[in-house]
Specification:
Pfam families: p450
Structural class: alpha+beta
Organism: Dioscorea cayennensis subsp. rotundata
Largest sheet: 5 strands, mixed
Strand content: 5-15%
InterPro entries: Cyt_P450, Cyt_P450_CS, Cyt_P450_E_grp-I, Cyt_P450_sf
Strand order of the largest sheet: 1-2-8-5-3
Distance between the termini: 85 Å
GO molecular function, one term: oxidoreductase activity, acting on paired donors, with incorporation or reduction of molecular oxygen
Bound molecules: protoporphyrin IX containing FE
Number of helices: 20
Helix content: 55-70%
Pathway: Plant hormone biosynthesis; brassinosteroid biosynthesis; Hormone biosynthesis
Length: 507
């Protein structure tokens, strides 16, 4: 045998020994740090990898629940694990989740991986803190989830833009076509958000902005390597950073142009200004806030993150609602009845939906709740403890990462009967606190506390209007088998391709 073989084995042994020593010393360090503080029970394992690989493997399947079920039955609903390079307290407990959400800013702070925070920008609402966060959060809440804003300015555009996309689906003379529903839903939600924020209708500009956005979003789940410029375009993160800069520049240009227009208007004392006040978009609101000290960088980050926040979330729920309905014919039939009766009251096909119509869709709300419950794209939120936090005899030390899992609570048999089955009827005759931080905290698809999703009602309206036009105009069936996965986000692998055909001729 070769004389280098024993040398190789000794080297390998030495490397293995060093790894074991590093791991042991880290474990001892962790144990020392925790001495005197009773952490929730759980798994203290390899500090580098921890349970990340197991978690990722579970969430890449259609049924990730056993990962959590096993740990909950072994350790209880609040347990310690080690994921994504850090010791993390995992909570499947509604009471603890509520404590985390409502303790924002006092005992907990939101925390995102550096790839996400760099790409969103440090002034985005998701990373803002303190009084500025409070002010900007209520600005969005007021613009996007108040009944008056939705009724008067948002709903008509939502109705029009959703029709515009659906109109392009089955061209004249063609019986049926195949569309990837997730892709179409994403186009719809992006166009809607651009309209709501910047007042632009869909066109070449919005489409090229969307292409850059896709690159930014891909970068969220990549490794943020700082490479030299000439190498950076070869990595997902580098491409995302470049796309982010392009989007920021495009938004900066819009802001400058609108600022100039505003100044001209202010000088000319235009009579129609009152009219314009009624139809103010987000840019106009921000330009007002600029006078109060908001910088251009803050405005750019703010708009950039808003475009991300409502895009993937709403389009995924639209797609999954259709998937679950397709797999549940009785629910589909009941929903169709609800929407046909709304359409029957209209004089012609092109008549838009109004607020009264939206308010007469009770079963639609059941379908949306149930879709959010069984497959929300936001399966939970990461937070960092900013003080020592006590819960049921345990101490979560300052600085420790916490993951409040909404999904684990939503799929817990103790809170919902037959919890793992899609059953929209379970919501009938239930007075669900829709913004959901209230109550027992067992239904929190939009989070809660100071960071409650400010687009929660806008999202519901968009999904309802989309379902209305899809159901009343088309018939469809799944074009191929598609699989749901939950990592890195909740989605179907193929974007849910469906064969669609007109239900009746459009008048
Ligand atoms: C079905 C659709 C949606 C779901 C499930 C959803 C869910 C959520 C959740 C769970 C949070 C809380 C995150 C946290 O606590 O860290 C959140 C925050 C947020 N959402 Fe939504 N969202 C949806 C649609 C929208 C829409 C349409 C908008 C557009 C305005 C929006 C804008 C935001 C913003 C700006 C935040 C950050 C709030 C803050 O940090 O103060 N979301 N969303």
């Amino acid at each position: 045998s070769s004389p280098t073989a024993p040398v190789g084995s000794i080297l390998l042994l030495l490397i293995l020994l060093s790894i074991i020593i590093i791991i042991l010393s880290s474990l001892i360090a962790v144990a020392r740090k925790d001495k005197g503080q009773a952490l929730p029970p759980g798994f203290l394992c390899l500090p580098l990898v921890g349970e990340t690989l197991k978690l990722v493997a579970a969430y890449k399947t259609e049924d990730p629940e056993p990962f959590i079920d096993e740990r909950v039955s072994r350790h209880g609903r609040v347990f310690t694990t080690h994921v994504f390079g850090e010791r993390t307290i995992f909570s499947a407990d509604p009471e603890f989740n509520r404590q985390v959400l409502t303790g924002e800013g006092r005992s907990f702070e939101c925390s995102y991986p550096s790839s996400i925070s760099t790409l969103l920008g440090r002034h985005s609402l998701l990373l803002m803190k303190g009084p500025l966060h409070k002010r900007m959060h209520s600005l969005i809440l007021c613009r996007f989830s108040s009944p008056s804003a939705l009724r008067e300015s948002l709903l008509p555009d939502i109705d029009r833009l959703i029709r515009l996309t659906l109109d392009s689906w089955v061209p004249d003379g063609q019986e049926a076509i195949t569309v990837r529903l997730l892709e179409q839903a994403k186009k719809i939600t992006f166009d809607l958000t651009v309209k709501q924020l910047l007042s632009f209708d869909p066109g070449v500009w919005t489409e090229s902005l969307r292409r850059e956005y896709l690159l930014v979003i891909e970068g969220f789940f990549s490794i943020p390597l700082a490479l030299p410029c000439f190498l950076s375009s070869s990595t997902t993160y580098g491409r995302a950073l470049r796309a982010r800069n392009k989007v920021a520049e495009a938004l900066r240009e819009v802001l400058r142009k609108r600022r100039d227009e505003k100044q001209m208007r202010d000088r000319s004392d235009d009579e129609s200004d009152q009219q314009r006040q009624k139809k103010r978009d987000m840019v106009e609101e921000l330009l007002e806030a600029e006078a109060g000290g908001l910088s251009e960088d803050e405005m750019v980050d703010f708009i950039l993150a808003l475009l991300v926040a409502g895009y993937e979330t709403t389009s995924t729920i639209m797609t999954l609602a259709v998937k679950f309905l397709t797999e549940n014919p009785p629910a589909l039939a009941l929903l169709l009845e609800e929407h046909d009766s709304i359409r029957a009251k209209k004089l012609h096909e092109s008549e838009t939906l109004d607020w009264t119509d939206y308010k007469s869709m009770p079963f639609t709300q059941c379908v949306i709740n149930e879709t959010l419950r069984v497959a929300n794209i936001i399966s939970g939120v990461f937070r960092r403890a900013v003080t020592d936090v006590h819960f049921k005899g345990y101490t979560i030390p300052k600085g420790c990462m916490v993951f409040s899992s909404f999904r684990a609570v939503h799929l817990d048999q103790n809170h919902y009967e037959d919890a793992r089955t899609f059953n929209p009827w379970r919501w009938q005759d239930k007075d669900v606190p829709l913004q959901t931080s209230a109550g027992a905290g067992i239904f929190t698809p939009f989070g809660g506390g100071p960071r409650l999703c400010p687009g929660y009602e806008l999202a519901r309206v968009e999904i309802s209007v989309f379902l209305h036009h899809l159901l009343t105009r088309f018939r469809w069936e799944a074009a191929e088998k598609d699989r749901l996965v939950f990592f890195p986000t909740t989605r179907t692998l193929k974007g849910y391709p469906i064969n669609v055909r007109h239900r009746r001729p459009v008048i």
